Amino acid sequence: MLRSLFTMRIYLDHNATTPVDPAVAEAMMRTLGDLFGNASSVHYYGQQAKSAIDGARSAIAALVGAEPGEIIFTSGGTEADNFAIRGVAEALEATGRRHLITSGIEHEAVLNTFKALARRGWKTTVLPLDPSGIVSPDRLREAITNDTALVSIMHANNEIGTIQPVAELAEIAHANGALFHTDAVQTAGKIPVSVRALGVDLLAISAHKFYGPKGIGALWAKRGIRLSPFMAGGKQERNRRAGTENVPGIVGMGVAARLANDNMPGESVRLSSLRNRLEEGILKAVPATQINGAPGSRVPNTTNISFDRIEAESLLIALDLEGVAVSTGSACSSGTLEPSHVLKAMNLPVHRAQNSIRFSLGAANTEEQIDRVISILPAIVTKLRSLSAVGSRS
Ligand code: PLP
Asked: Hey, which of 107, 187, 214, 340 would you mutate to test ligand 1's pocket, going by the most ligand atoms within 8 Å of its Cβ?
């Protein structure tokens, strides 16, 4: 296929990261220039930086329905997840509760932290799922014991977008004396998130998923929760997270949180309509395609589609040549295609875990862009299928 001469670039990978909003960048530049003080310093410069951090803290607390004093800034979602899980595990070790529960569709930030703790003697349970991609409360009821210290289940999945029944799962954890952490990296800024309505104890978010900068995130920890700091150092963040604060990052995250809060109602309706247009268009125009995960309970911007007799990686590259950026949970390592761990955990056949593409939409996407993707896909897929060495697999 000839590459279009005038390629319009279309970014459909917002679950990987989002472009920084110009208002965020502008606030960060101002902070870099003017607010160079160390927020721990008592003098004017320090207090200016501290006041900027406090403003951002309030905006981020408002985004998740929390108190500002419960927000702990981190270097991103990965650190927030590590902090929640390791912090609770260490704080509760002495109680004799040495069991942790998570699900097979979590981000590596959670799954690999569980593996690290398992190597240190913690008993861990990874809940299996079905093709809906939704964690079953019954599975949690079966797995939880009096030894369970923490349950960690994500709010929405990054690959398929399914929203988990977190409030119900948290209730089960609490009824058994366990704490509950949720990775809300893929929901904060996209759908309303309320720590109180969810009834969780800990919640992780990351700025670069909602038009803020990379390298900054936050852990919300309910007041009174026992949580061991996992970095030794100064007394920043009320003794919970040592290290001089990333003031420009925090200010940027605060502006992004404010914008997300303001834009969310209209933007979520607009994105779900665009997502549905894309999904329906692809299913109609490209034979042998299927949606992965329960379509009824997803974040508005995400769809994950399986293309029969296609290698996801090849489709991703072909789309990139046409100026369309998408992603796949499967990864090519040493010449073989590793199936997506999320789709595998959902018990989908291996070929489906290798032939699926995630489209994740965001602020700059338009109907025109969506229609262009729908129009170029059939020819790309037909060509790849004709070249495919994968053979016919149903
Ligand atoms: N959790 C989920 C669900 C994610 O999608 C991501 C990022 O892809 C992370 C955690 C990690 O966040 P960060 O990139 O800020 O470390």
From this structure: 107
